[in-house]
Design brief:
Blueprint (H helix, E strand, L loop, with lengths): L13 H5 L3 H13 L8 H15 L3 H23 L14 H14 L8
Helix pairs in contact: 2-3
Length: 119
């Protein structure tokens, strides 16, 4: 036995959960139950959860292939860019200077305990 089902509850089979048609519906019902909006679900909500994934599944395979190719190319360009060195400019004074960063850090450290406990 994997669990207990109480009155008014039901269990979805693994086959139903694995179904690409039923899965969006189950996820929509689960979301509505978790967000306490199950009582406000309408037929259109249920239809939308089924028809949107089906429409995507019936779209042209070449579109998916092209998007996949574009995604691979983008990732390749990002990886190349991440392998390139980058230059930083560090200043001692000014708004972005090390001195200001150290002063700000010291202020934060001084504020982490109540003034009554500071020496």
């Amino acid at each position: 036995m994997a669990g207990v089902v109480h009155a008014g509850e039901w269990v979805a089979s693994q086959r139903l959960v694995a179904s690409p048609v039923a899965r969006p519906l189950i996820e929509a019902l689960d979301y509505a139950q978790r967000t306490n909006t199950i009582g406000s679900l309408k037929g259109a909500d249920v239809s939308r959860s089924i028809t949107a994934p089906m429409a995507l599944a019936q779209s042209q395979p070449q579109v998916i292939v092209q998007e996949s190719k574009d995604l691979r190319e983008t990732i390749a360009r990002l990886n190349e860019r991440l392998d390139e060195p980058f230059v930083t400019v560090n200043t001692v004074t000014g708004d972005k200077g090390i001195k200001q960063a150290q002063d700000e850090y010291q202020r934060l450290m001084n504020n982490k305990s109540p003034k009554s406990k500071r020496k």
